[in-house]
Predict the 3D structure of the following.
Amino acid sequence: MLLLAENIQKRFDSENVLEDISLEVNEGEVVVIIGPSGSGKSTLLRCLTQLEQVNSGRIEINGKLMVDTVDGRAVYADSKTLHEILLDVGLVFQNFNLFPHYSVMKNIVDAQVNVLKRDKEEARTIAMELLKKMNLSDRGDAYPCELSGGQQQRIAISRALALNPKILFFDEPTSALDPELTGEILKVIRNLANENMTMVIVTHEMAFAKEVADRVIFMDNGLVVEQGTPEELFGNTVNQRTKEFLQRYSDI
């Protein structure tokens, strides 16, 4: 098991955003999280990637304990362990988060040099290979402002992959894109799934979720309402709340 999260609770002030969330992800598995806006999906990803701290619960990634609950409160691992866990994790944001004053190549190379301490030439070779994989070989010297949203997101995915994560998280990777650009990002993610990349994907693209997921989790109001295979969730759900949510999507 690559990721184990148990009884995760997260509060902002007095508001409970995540309520007793438990999640398991096996190596090579693609888990897709769906649900209405405000259901806690993105907050869960932020907790799993150390961008937010949980109030209680247990998280283990690649055999390393990130946080556990002791005497009713969350106790995080030491900084060395947390850094090691971060090296196992990649996160692709909604809005790309590229450095606008860096070229495409520098965005991908600097991440490797600074985080993994790779030699610059090796990092550049890896970056070129990834750009070729993304059909962006000719854009290495371009700057983010010169690229379409779809191209920027492919660069962001390349930067994440360059760090060799064990598990890759996507937080609504197509929400900032025009519909015509969405397809190229979904194609990249499909290809990663075919290569057995372990992924956790938050998305509103239901047809895509049905196609690419090994397992689908439906969240609402900070709770896991239901989970199962795409066939179980999209075709045979008996949960009324899940049915109500999925009725909005005629394409599935």
In short: The two ends are 30 Å apart (CA to CA). The chain is about 35% helix and 25% strand.
